[in-house]
Design a protein that fits this description.
heterodimer; A: 462 residues; mainly alpha; globular; B: mainly alpha
């Protein structure tokens, strides 16, 4: 059957995979299912050598002994302890009290706390659900525009995947083969740029139309002066110090990310004890949710390993590589096309899946294209670094989370919003934030220094 | 069928127990990682080498156990990510139909494939020689490293546990398809998102959630 080019069979795998996903079958096993079907077809037409699968255990074993991935349970556990002990909730309450008196204050508090929580955990779902349950009712009660409220919560929750340390950066560093510390350093400025842009947006909206986000009336501010100061010292300062300590040790190279995460987790347990919020049940709950998320990510990784092996066996990767490197227009076409592809994939898939299947295809092509551009002195001599490209991909991936109609942040928001907040309203409310994210993406693409500068600064410091 | 459902119940009870184990392993992983960094700095301070490759490799064992034992647990508790904008609208039978055939045609073959391809490398790690006799088992090439054979064996164990849980799921889906099960609580009514929300509700408002549960 010569008329079926096995390389095209590789491309068809993606279509088969998307079809399986639409049936609602779990993502992790859809990878394996697609691989099994196409592997069998490939064997039937003699285009797939089944012996390739004998290397599976070796690849899996490589995953099990990968020190980078050890950071996954460490950071999830740190975030889970802060969340389950109620420390995160108090943080939100305290910042809300502090910012309440200004117009749009609660929305600003949500963005600030979203930024801080993002720096502990890479789990978007947890952040959005927690803030949606706590802040959305408060904002609606005080007369905030519902759209402004839901949009702000979704965008702030999505910061979890951009601001280091985050799960997506850990996985990207693994796929790109770049140092995780460098990637964290590179992501910090773009992540903060997003967060600051959201705040500016809220301030402008609230200034132009105070009815959208009124300041809290005096009677709603129950604590003042010293009592408020004490609450700030107790609920706000310690977690912030902890977060900076964790990030600082990673950037300064004092500890590996997994070690810093473990230190942070122990610190968070210490805080819980100091605040009398510690219980063995809380610790067990945090550990169990850590184990579940870790298992979920690794299940998808194990399953996608099989998918990628079959794809390579059929030669689909070579076809994609030849398309990507042979694009007319070279560098800029490649950057634009890869961004559009990742954005579209992000509409359907979660970052784990995209990272595991699209990045192995993009990374080799990106290396060639970036090297060629640097050799031609396109941006200095080595301005287009792989770190920069990884950060561009990370910013892009997080847009996909809240871009309607299909995005995980939208789903999470829907699941906690009151009944009178319609799906259409939630979708509309995301659009201004998607536009802000696109502007920041454009900025990071146009100015590689946003990612590169801190990486150099961190490396240069002793 | 009743016998099968009993079997499924037994498997579920067993897998649920794994939850207690992986909880403990997570805490141990964090402790081992912490200890490793702590001893490195303490060692530097007193000019002694306190860390060893053993401690680093213990982390590999613990990390691997979290997810390999976690696979069957998340299958039982339906923590899997689904693209559920259609799935969530369907009735219990249609969902059971999708999950039944998915498990039968994809998940179970995947487990069998994983176990099959792993047997030979694992036997070699345990020291099997080409002539069928056994020599020394594989030990990490790092100085003072741990034996790698048990770690490799965990791959088979993990997929075996996942296979057993998959069989239990299959029985439950079949029970729904044949009308034996009226409720669909075994196939979790909603996708992962609602479940996450529910979990968060439990954590954030324990009293209210409890009351809601009691009146249910």
């Amino acid at each position: 059957m010569d008329f079926i080019n096995p390389q095209w069979l590789g491309i068809l795998m993606f279509a088969g995979f998307l079809f399986l996903l639409l049936t609602g079958y779990p993502v992790a096993f859809s990878f394996a299912g697609t691989a099994i079907i196409f592997g069998l077809i490939g064997m039937a037409i003699g285009a797939f050598d089944v012996n390739l699968l004998l290397s599976l255990p070796n690849s899996w074993f490589g995953t099990m002994t990968d020190s980078t991935l050890l950071a996954i349970p460490a950071f999830i556990f740190l975030g889970a302890v802060l969340e389950k002990s109620g420390l995160a909730e108090e943080l939100l309450e305290t910042v809300g009290l502090l910012m309440g008196p200004i117009r749009g204050g609660i929305a600003l508090a949500v963005i600030l706390v979203g930024t801080l929580l993002a720096a502990t955990t890479g789990v978007i779902a947890a952040t959005i659900i927690a803030m949606g349950l706590i802040s959305l009712p408060t904002m609606i009660k005080h007369g905030y525009d519902k759209g402004l409220a839901t949009g702000t919560i979704m965008a702030s929750g999505t910061l979890a995947q951009m601001i280091p340390p985050s799960l997506v950066l850990v996985l990207l560093s693994d796929q790109f083969g770049v140092s995780i510390g460098d990637l964290f350093a590179g992501a910090l400025i773009p992540g903060l740029a997003l967060s600051v842009s959201y705040m500016i947006y809220v301030l402008i909206r609230a200034y132009l139309n105070p009815r959208l986000a009124p300041a809290l009336p005096p009677e709603a501010r129950t604590i003042h002066g010293w009592a408020l100061g004490k609450k700030v010292m107790k609920a706000l300062v310690p977690p912030v110090v902890l977060i900076f300590a964790v990030l600082g040790t990673i950037f300064a190279g004092l500890a590996t990310p997994s070690e810093a995460g473990a230190f942070g987790a122990i610190g968070a347990i210490g805080l819980a004890i100091a605040n009398r919020k510690f219980s063995w049940k809380m610790l067990g709950d945090a550990a169990l949710s850590t184990a579940k998320t870790t298992a979920l990510v690794l299940m998808i990784l194990f399953s996608s390993t099989l998918f990628v092996k079959v794809l390579y066996g059929l030669g689909g990767d070579m076809l994609i590589d030849s398309w990507l490197t042979g694009l007319p227009g070279g560098f800029w076409t490649f950057i634009i096309v890869s961004n559009i592809v990742i954005f579209l994939l992000g509409v359907f898939l979660e970052f784990t899946e995209i990272t595991f299947i699209a990045m192995p295809l993009l990374v080799p092509a990106a290396e060639k294209v970036l090297n060629a551009a640097n050799a031609a002195g396109a941006y200095g001599t080595e301005g287009y670094t792989m770190i920069w490209f990884a950060i561009v991909m990370a910013v892009n991936l997080q847009i996909a989370f809240i871009s309607p109609p299909v995005g995980f942040s939208l789903f999470y928001m829907q699941s906690v919003a009151p009944k009178d907040v319609s799906t259409a309203l939630i979708h509309r409310s995301a659009i201004p934030y998607v536009i802000i994210q696109l502007i920041v993406l454009g900025l990071v693409i146009a100015v590689p220094e946003t990612a590169n500068w801190l990486v150099r600064a961190a490396t240069a410091s002793p | 069928m009743n016998l099968l459902l009993k079997l499924s119940k037994g498997i579920d009870a067993f897998t649920d127990k794994l939850g207690g184990i992986i909880k403990l392993i997570v805490v141990l992983t964090i402790a081992a990682t912490f200890l490793n960094a702590f001893l490195r700095y303490l060692g530097k301070a007193i000019a002694q080498t306190l860390i060893s490759n053993e401690l680093i490799q213990v982390q590999w064992y613990l990390f691997s156990m979290i997810f390999l034992f976690g696979f069957p647990y998340i299958l039982l508790h339906n923590t899997n990510v689904r693209v559920d904008f259609l799935y969530a609208k369907w009735g219990p039978r249609r969902r059971a139909f999708i999950d039944f055939f998915g498990t039968l045609l994809f998940l179970i073959p995947f487990c069998l494939l994983a176990i099959y391809v792993s047997i030979n490398p694992v036997l070699i790690a345990w020291g099997r020689l080409p002539d069928g006799t056994f020599g020394a088992w594989e030990v990490s090439s790092d100085a003072g490293g741990l034996p790698m054979a048990p770690l490799k064996t965990l791959i088979i164990l993990g997929f075996l546990l996942l296979l057993i849980q998959a069989v239990s799921q299959l029985i439950k889906y079949l029970a729904i398809l044949t009308g034996r099960h009226e409720t669909d609580h075994v196939v979790m009514a909603a996708g992962a998102t609602e479940q996450l929300a529910e979990e968060a509700l439990h954590n954030l408002q324990p009293h209210e959630a409890h009351e809601a549960g009691a009146s249910h």
